[in-house]
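Entry 14. Ran structure prediction on the chain below.
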Amino acid sequence: MARIKNIELPNNKHVNIGLTAIYGIGRPLANTICANTNVDPDKKVKDLTEEEVASLRKEIDTLTVEGDLRREVQMNIKEKMEINSYEGTRHKKGLPVRGQRTSRNARTRKGKGKVVANKKK
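Output, structure tokens:
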């Protein structure tokens, strides 16, 4: 059972897929980490030796992942909100930030749809 950055890697997955359980590591970066540490990416996590886990841990320690990355992202968002940039105001209002339309979708950011009462004639 491999534990890196206080995250349990899934045992029955390949190493390059299992590393993506760590926040901030995607498929391309996982493949790069495997190449740098000479770990076979097609090997299952449960079959890793202690030396391989140690080399993966050492390689990942050089990256900004998990809590540090989450904190950095939140600080960036907070800074945009403080300087009242366009993105910051969209974050404050709970609207889509990156130019998506709001007339048709965007329920995930805006919340549940609001019912508008019928107007009297």
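The chain has two domains: 3-63, 67-110. Will compare against last week's run tomorrow.
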